Structure formats: C-alpha cells, structure tokens
Amino acid sequence: MSDTPPAPSGAPGSPDFDEMTRDIAEVPAVEVIVTVAVNLMSAAAVKLGLTEEGDKYKDLDEARKLIHALAGLLDGSATEISSFHAAPLRDGLKSLQLAFREASLVPDEPGQGPGEKYTGPIYG
Fold this sequence. Notes:
Order of helices and strands: HHHHH
Low-confidence stretches: none
Shape: globular
Oligomer: single chain
Helix content: 55-70%
Largest sheet: none
C-alpha cells in the first residue's frame, strides 16, 4: 500500500467523481453486465491456470467462487440481455466449468460444481 495520500478531487491525474458518474450514466445496462461477466470469466481463467503463466496463479477455490458468481450473474440477467450477448457468455461459462472439472483432483458430483445450481449438471 502506498504512503502517498490520494490527490484531492479535481487535482491533476485524480478521477473526478462527477465526471465518472456522467461516464457510467451513458453506458447501457447490457454493456455493464457483459463487461462484468467478461471480467469474471478472465479472472476465473487466470485462477484455473489457463493463461500463459499457467499454474503460477492457479487457485481452484478462487476459481470456484468466480465461476459461481458468473453463473449467478448470467442466470439473473438472462431475460435482460439478448441471446446475441448471452450465448457466447454461456459458452464461456460452460468452458470454464469443464476446465474446473478437469483441473480438480477430486471432481464434484454432476450438479455440485461451481455454478451448476444455475446451469444444471456439467459433464466432461
């Protein structure tokens, strides 16, 4: 953690809360949901060891939480985002769930893996 205090609001280089609020106000909800989903997918892939760094950041407990959160987000927003957005996110989720199953030394029973309470059992 840095010992440097944060710059006062309005100082050069500091985020302006009013400006950030205006920026986020212009973003459609679907875009926010998709962005959050992609961030969860990316973080889960890292925690599964699926990146160039491999096992360096692998942590299946963390991956489980991220995959479960992604599944909940997609389940909760299914009627709010179009299938144009939802289909590739669901495909990515399923790929992560399968990768989790393959990475687990003792795989969960079908239906008990991360996010499967929302998606149904994943077999792999």
